[in-house]
Design brief:
Layout: E1 3-7, H1 14-25, E2 28-31, H2 32-40, H3 44-51, H4 53-67, E3 73-76, H5 85-93, E4 95-101, H6 104-111, H7 125-140, E5 145-148, H8 154-164
Parallel strand pairs: 1-3, 1-4, 2-3, 4-5
Bound molecules: shikimate-3-phosphate (S3P).
């Protein structure tokens, strides 16, 4: 079976939904950020601060290359995976792509206290979310299916995805 790939902005629930979905389908669960942290032995924030975003994006692409060689997995990606077309091509090659959506306000409420998202460690995270959100919106919309997560539990979002399979 093809992989099920979850894309979407930070805080849209890709990891929580992915875990539930993989259990329901009996698929292996892969969290791209977790693989990055395990293979490098560093937290995402440390990779950003020591080597910069562009090195992080290279590592992210290396991990995508590796994991897309297998199938029957649920893959939760990091929010910026859409920034490189080569990542999306690899993921699409043997996967169905679902985008998890939520409004900017809901996203801000969910991530405002999180210290482990380096792109949001700025003076005005709300403004940063708006800016990234608008820039990335057309990229997320390239998914095969978009799922509105607002007002739904991760369990309900997983059910919605299963209905579309
Ligand atoms: C990022 C999202 C993060 C993580 C990194 C960069 C982004 O993942 O990959 O901090 O560019 O949106 P989550 O979407 O799981 O927070």
């Amino acid at each position: 079976m093809k992989n099920i790939v979850l894309i979407g902005f930070m805080g849209t629930g890709k990891t929580s939904v992915g875990k539930i979905l993989s259990e329901k389908l009996g698929f292996k669960f892969i969290d791209v950020d977790e693989v990055i942290e395990k293979t490098t032995g560093m937290k995402i924030s440390e990779i950003f601060s020591r080597f910069g975003e562009s090195r992080f994006r290279d590592i992210e692409s290396e991990v995508i290359n590796l994991i897309t060689k297998r199938d029957s997995q649920v893959i939760a990606t990091g929010g910026g995976v859409v920034l490189r077309d080569e990542n999306m091509k690899k993921l699409r090659g043997n996967g169905v792509i679902f985008c998890l959506k939520a409004s900017e306000n809901v996203i801000f409420e969910r991530v405002k206290h999180c210290k482990d998202r380096p792109l949001l460690q700025v003076e005005n995270p709300e403004e940063r979310i708006k800016e990234l959100f608008n820039r990335r919106k057309p990229l997320y919309e390239k998914a095969d299916f978009c799922i509105d997560t607002e007002g739904l539990t991760p369990e309900q979002v997983a059910e919605k995805i299963i209905e579309r399979l």
